[in-house]
Every structure is written in C-alpha cells, then in structure tokens.
Amino acid sequence: MLKKLMRAITAFLPVDKRRTGACIGCGACCKLPYTCPFLSHDASGEARCTIYRFRPPSCRKYPRTEREWLTRATCGFSFNNGHAAPGDAPQAPAPAAAAPAAEPVKHVP
Ligand code: SF4
C-alpha cells in the first residue's frame, strides 16, 4: 500500500528520459498490487482500461522510473541501461573501444 501511495505522489514528476518502448497491453501494471476494478480484456485477451481517457497520472506514466518498473518480465517498455524488455530486438555488441592514444613523450630540458 505504501508503494502504491508513493507511486501516486511521484506520478507528478517527469518520466525518466531513458525509458523507451511502448505499452503492449499486457495488463501487469493494472494488478499492482491488486487488480484494478477498471481493468477489462478485449476478445483477444489484451488488457483494456475502461477509463483510459481519464486514467490517473500514475497509470499514464507507468513505468515512470526503472525503480518502479515492477513488471519488466512482460512490459513493453524498457530503460536504456542494458536491461532488455521482452519485445526488444537483441542488441548488437558494442564496438571494441579504440586503444588509448599513446602518451606524448615529454622531453625534459
Ligand atoms: S506492464 Fe507495461 S506493457 Fe503491460 S500494461 Fe503496463 S505499461 Fe503496458
């Protein structure tokens, strides 16, 4: 309950700029920590919010930060820090770092 209250309060803060992706309608965040009474499912089983246009900021901005991202196993969002979301394409390995330039030789008079 405390976490839900904190999420409601911090929802007025900006979304972390490292967040990428989009909601894929898994509905997992609509069950934190209990199933929202406005959660519904369409014929295909995709989660639907029955008050979508009027949903509170904590729902609009979820996941606002990586710390509050409790649904990473199914969520379509991710954060640019090496953690991949289920729908993310595999990342290419980072190019090898160039060898550091040799220190210029200092000639002491
Ligand atoms: S957990 Fe992520 S993908 Fe699933 S409904 Fe919530 S925001 Fe959308």
Entry summary:
With 109 residues, the protein is low in regular secondary structure. The protein has helices spanning 2-10, 57-60; strands at 19-21, 39-41, 47-49, 77-79. It contains two helices and four strands.
Give a verbal description of the structure:
- Helices cover 12% and strands 11% of the residues.
- The protein has 109 residues and is largely without helices or strands.
- It has a domain at 23-87.
- The strands form two sheets. The protein has a two-stranded antiparallel sheet. A two-stranded antiparallel sheet has the order 2-3.
- It is globular.
- The N and C termini lie far apart (71 Å).
- Residues 23-29, 47, 62, 71, 74-77 line the site of iron/sulfur cluster (SF4).
